[in-house]
Amino acid sequence: MRAFLYRLAWALARPLATPLEHLGGGRGKLARGLRGRRAAAAARTAWGRGAGAGGEAGEPGGGGARGDGAGRDPRRPLVWFHAASVGEGRQAEAVMRRVRAARPSWQLAYTFSSPSAARWAASLPVDLAGYAPFDTPRETGAALDALRPTALVFSATDVWPELVRQAARRHVALAMVSGTLAPTSSRRGAVARWLLRPAYAALEGVGAIDEADAAGLERLGTPRARITVTGDTRHDAAAARIATVAPDAPHLAALRREPPDPRAIVLAGSTWPSDERVLLPALVAARRRGACFRLVIAPHEPGGAHLDDLERRLRRGLEPGVTVVRLSGLLDAGNPEPPATGNLAPGDLGRGKWDVAIVDSVGVLADLYTTASIAYVGGGFHGKGLHSVIEPAAAGVPVLFGPRWRGSRDARLLLEAGGAVAAADQAALEAALTHWLTNEPARASAARAARAVVERGRGAADRSAQLVVDLVERKLSATSLHPTP
Prior knowledge:
The protein is an alpha/beta fold and 485 residues long.
């Protein structure tokens, strides 16, 4: 009955995909994601036949796919990793890199659901990266027949019931890494538990983040004997990324341009308008109480219209005379004739004369945290929940966020360690900003506490990779196949 109802829901919803692909001119996230997933099965089939990726990374022509080499080599085991978006993908990345290093002869594939992961996925150390197909019997079956994976590994929570069902029928090993079930997760509801239970019960090896997650996954149907607490690979991924940041990278050097500015940098990352409505007046009030700082703000939606609106709100909400620039303008400051940006004359851009910088590019936020004295992470005043707080913590930066954080384990760990403050409202945010901006020892202590949380969490990726390798090799042994040395 569960399978019938699930398939019926997809049969009713699937025809709506085509008209929705043209919504808003076809440029929005929903439209791009639908196009990518519609093309995914064909793209996987093309790669499986040795025809390459069938399209550019992040482009709908190949289902958002990138392929290396000639395609699927049936003589080599293939591990298919899947994660919903960039956050869960980074958790999987830490495992994929270790599996690649431990078993270089194996092939790796990576799929995602959200278009926000398309560009990022193109940089992964895998043989194939692209969208997951729609979760229908025909499309998941076609992808599985093309890829012929030895194992299918889900990251965090994004388990698709039909994909699991079809994979189990083909005797594909099923696993999960960084398995988690947040207290606020919709998967805890009665309907979701009923619908998803067979999929979670089919998982053969699960690396849970902690004991609470292990218990939650057991309630969803995974036998406890198949669950091991391995930790959160996000900590390994964040630490590894920070370790590779080049301090002289153009987007970092632009913020540190000579002459040096002694003011602290408050970096507000992944902000929504609901965050900005609280943050901006809190910053103004903190400045009036003696705090001295510059603001770098990276909105969650860095599109042109939103950036224009944000710049207008910054000019209205901050004190007169505050100079507002865009990061692209600072990067262009080395050109002979840089464009005028904000209310600065072109010649001033190269001399570090700015008070607020708007980040108008993607993929640089984690790097930018290394320039910050304090990080404000968005989503805590927004209905969709808090964004990643572990990246600033890995950079050794104390973290501020709004009241809607309880779905984030990392936020809880940072609060318990003293590396973060959750502000319930504007007054609380103003007080926290003022305290850390005017009390350097307190700020330094919080920074050390934040970094220590990340250090304590490291090692999860090694344990998770070993879980995957062991599962794959058991499967190979059971089918009398052996990995190429």
